[in-house]
Amino acid sequence: MSNLAKVIPFRPSVSVVERQVADIDDGYTRIANELLEAVMAADLTARQLKVVLAVIRKTYGFGKKFDRITNTQISGMTGIHHTHVCKAKNEMIAMNIIVTNGLAIG
């Protein structure tokens, strides 16, 4: 009997990934330093942070203080299910991080 083993090479697959560089020519969101510092200092969960950043993008990113933003829109931007978006948004409204103006938020 022979105790020979077959050696199978396991080489990792290498793929070329193009590096992307952020460029303001592609657009940017102008935000007040005070607001950015307040968001950084707030004790937010990951979901809450994603939601507030989406609200900032949909408001300040388009030169508005308030806008009607649906939970589905925020869900599409963040990848968070719309029911969790609703919960996070309501938590931040209660914390006065997000404010309402009728049906609009900002």
TrEMBL record:
Residues 20-105 form the Bacteriophage lambda Replication protein O N-terminal domain. InterPro entries: Phage_lambda_VrpO_N, WH-like_DNA-bd_sf. Coiled coil: none annotated. One of its GO terms (biological process) is DNA replication. Gene3D superfamilies: Winged helix-like DNA-binding domain superfamily/Winged helix DNA-binding domain (1.10.10.10). NCBIfam families: phage_O_Nterm. This is Phage replication protein O.
